[in-house]
Amino acid sequence: MTTFRDALAAGPLVLDGGMSNELEAQGHDLSGTLWSARLLRDDPDAIAAVHRAYYAAGAQVAITAGYQATYDGFARLGISRTETTALLRRSVSLAREAADAAEGPFAGRRWVAASVGPYGAMLADGSEYRGDYGLSVAELTRFHRPRLEALAEAGPDVFAVETIPDLREAEAVLIALEGLGIPAWLSYSIRGTTTSAGQPLSEAFALARSSDAVLATGVNCAPAADASAALALVSGLPGVVYPNGGGLWDPESRSWKGAQDEIADLAPAWLRSGAALVGGCCRVGPAEIKELADCVGAAATDR
Question: What GO biological process terms does the UniProt entry carry, in alphabetical order (predicted)?
Answer without folding.
Answer: methionine biosynthetic process; methylation; S-methylmethionine cycle
